[in-house]
Amino acid sequence: MIIKALLIPALLMAVVFSLRARASLRGQARRKVIAVLTVLAGATAVAFPTLLQDVADAVGVTRGTDLLTYGLALVILYLVGSTSVRFREQESRFVRLARQVALAEAEARLASARQA
Amino acid sequence: MNTLTVVEPTAPSTVSPVAEDGFADVVVIVRVYNEAPVVGGVIAELMAAGISVVAVDDASTDGSAGEIDRTGALRVSHPINLGAGGALQTGLEAALKFTDARYIGCFDADGQHQLVDLIGMIRTIRQGYDVVMGSRFLDGKTEMSPLRRLILRTATKVFNRGAGTRLTDAHNGLRLMTREVAAATRLTQTGMAYASELERQLTRPGHRLTEFPVHILYTEYSKSKGQPLLNSVNILADTIAHRLGSGRAAL
Questions:
Q1: Could you tell me the residue range of the domain that residue A19 belongs to?
Q2: Are B1 and A113 in contact (CB < 8 Å)?
Q3: Beta bridge partners of B75
Q4: What value, to the nearest 5°, has the Cα angle with vertex A23 and ends A18 and A24?
Q5: Residue B7's closest chain A neighbor by CA?
Q6: Does B98 sit within 8 Å of A106, measured CB to CB?
Q7: Residue A19 domain-assigned?
Q8: Which one of A99, A106, A114 has the shortest CB-CB distance to B4?
Q9: Would you tell me which residues 79-108 of chain B have a C-beta closer than 8 angstroms to some C-beta of chain A?
Q10: Per-domain boundaries in chain B
Q11: CATH code of domain B4-250
Q12: Is residue A73 classed exposed, middle or buried when 0-12, 13-18 and 19+ CB atoms within 10 A define those classes?
């Protein structure tokens, strides 16, 4: 079963890459590449329906649809993981922003209280 | 509004039955999230003892900000709610920025902490410690249900794994540290899981740390407001997740 040898490392890579995605340019570029590849692969699978089945037969999957499901599951896993990392980064940025706003406002109030 | 008491540590401390040695070198961070009924009294008691207070209002929606201002304590108000850890980090930064206190403490706004415990901790840290942690388990003074005791003990065990120092009470809100330790503290966890992160930073090998027995009052108010017991499960899960996520350096 070639598919097992392909899917299990791919699964692990999807998790590792997605959690290391960060807001880096590399992570952003990777997400874009994956999006484009997903569209292209989808279009190809629609245009040449037999192709998917041929690939499935080659890697030891019964049906082409199953192969498609596996592929989509990997893509979703990566996108969900990398999105959650981005969310966390954004959160830590707005926490710092809110803290600066709070400190600046307190400083201004303190200064005006001193003048009064 | 007399906010100047905060920024002038040399100001003579108010005469108080317990403050014969003065607390001009201490500032206490009180985190406030919708505690209007009690926060004024808690802060007023601290300030009456001559202790400066930095109150972090975590975007309260009740009258907490007004109650704080009435006491004359320095108020730092978050524009949006950031959670317990986020508020503590703000408090530390505000204490460093607006005061030159030698010692920086944390005190709960809901009245469950005792001023006498804090004063005992101040006397202890002056003996040359960097960090003094309150602990509910050093003596039997704090009454709590067996289930709460079990969960807190478990959390402490999970927390202690990997940390250099053994603490008896990982999630006690009563803490006192030197200015240097406060300046080195960086909390990224904004929710309740900050406790594990904070403890890890406070128990760094170079720090002279000790525990001090404190008495927590589980009043009806603090029970209804404070941490529901079930929240311990959240804290435990967050702590373990945080441990797995960023704890590689300590393993």
A1: 2-83
A2: yes
A3: B55
A4: 95
A5: A110
A6: yes
A7: yes
A8: A114
A9: 79-80, 82, 86, 89-90, 93-94, 97-98
A10: 4-250
A11: 3.90.550.10
A12: middle
